[in-house]
Design a protein that fits this description.
With about 270 residues, this protein is of the alpha+beta class. Helices cover about 25% and strands about 25% of the residues. It starts with a helix and ends in a 6-residue tail after the last strand. The protein has helices at about 5-20, 40, 140-145, 155-160, 170-180, 190-210, and strands at about 20-30, 45-55, 60-65, 65-70, 75-80, 90-95, 100-105, 115-120, 250-255, 260-265. The protein binds a DNA duplex (16 and 16 nucleotides) through loops.
Length: about 270
DNA sequence: ACACACTCCTGAATGC
DNA sequence: TGCATTCAGGAGTGTG
């Protein structure tokens, strides 16, 4: 499941391949993603890619005539082909490039999407996003001030992209463990020192995960097909009924806002 | 405006 | 063994 580090990794891969290349055309195999792939993408023809970047978990392809916003959902995967290849069951579309390379997008569960925006459009998705967690705008003062106002758990807070962009379930669980805060604590009850710890933990964990090419749980692959390597560093996520790596007590699993939370009741409070 | 449940989807894991 | 059910999750949408 791609979160910020996985998306960052994918973006740096496809940036190298796509920037200054020309997309000759697209071949659509299945346009039924979360929303139907729009005709502007289906009809792309000889258009240069100016830039590829990330915002939260969104991938933005900046083209001459507008931009494509891609979200990978749960199972979106890119692969790089050097020859035309028949489509498999979960393949959705190919971008045919002017150097004979092909970028293929596949998505088993179809939670992902590809949308088109004209350059003058206000952007419905990007405009609502909170600061990037690795930017200076995301700091302890910001977190402290914003959490004062919210009667939601700190985990729900972290996973809401309008407060901070790109933190999903894995990294919310891991950051809260590292900073010793139980996921069910009300965000307004987190004190300033805890905000300092939490911000530091988030930045540190995301940075390390980016270095290790992300976390592979089931579906995430880098564009070269290699798996992310951060999963072996996970301390709580997916470790239901296993022992805490700090204190050796059993980790607790709960469902919180219809998401899995994992924590240690001795190391987190 | 806010908080939270529901929804989309497929395949692996689990249950009987 | 085989069929049925449960679970995983991002984030937009709908409800109270």
């Amino acid at each position: 499941m791609p979160e910020l580090p996985e998306v960052e990794n994918i973006v740096s891969c496809i940036r190298n391949i796509l920037v200054n290349r020309i997309i000759l055309y697209t071949i659509i195999k299945n346009d039924r993603l979360r929303w139907c792939i729009p005709f502007e993408i289906k009809q792309l023809f000889n258009v240069r890619v100016f830039n590829v970047y990330r915002r939260g978990k969104y991938i933005i392809l900046k083209l001459y005539s507008g931009y494509i916003i891609i979200h990978l959902g749960m199972t979106g995967v890119f692969s790089l082909l050097f020859n035309k290849l028949n489509f498999g069951k979960h393949d959705c579309l190919d971008l045919i490039l002017d150097n004979n390379m092909i970028i293929r997008y596949s998505d088993c569960r179809k939670f992902g999407f590809w949308l088109w925006f004209n350059k003058e459009d206000k952007n419905f998705f990007l405009d609502k996003l909170g600061p990037e967690p690795l930017s200076e705008n995301f700091n302890c003062n910001y977190l402290y001030n914003l959490t004062r106002l919210r009667k939601i758990s700190i985990k729900s807070f972290l996973m809401n992209s309008k407060f901070v962009a790109g933190i999903g379930n894995i990294y919310a669980n891991e950051s809260l463990f590292q900073s010793g805060i139980i996921p069910t604590r009300l965000s307004m009850n987190i004190n300033f020192n805890e905000c300092v710890n939490l911000v530091n933990s988030i930045k540190k964990i995301l940075s390390i995960a980016i270095k290790h090419n992300g976390t592979t749980i089931k579906n995430f692959k880098q564009i070269n097909g290699k798996l992310g390597e951060f999963s072996k560093y996970l301390k709580v996520y997916g470790r239901k009924n296993k022992l805490c790596k700090k204190c050796n007590n059993l980790l607790i699993y709960i469902r919180q806002n219809q998401r899995s939370s994992f924590f240690c009741k001795f190391c987190q409070s």
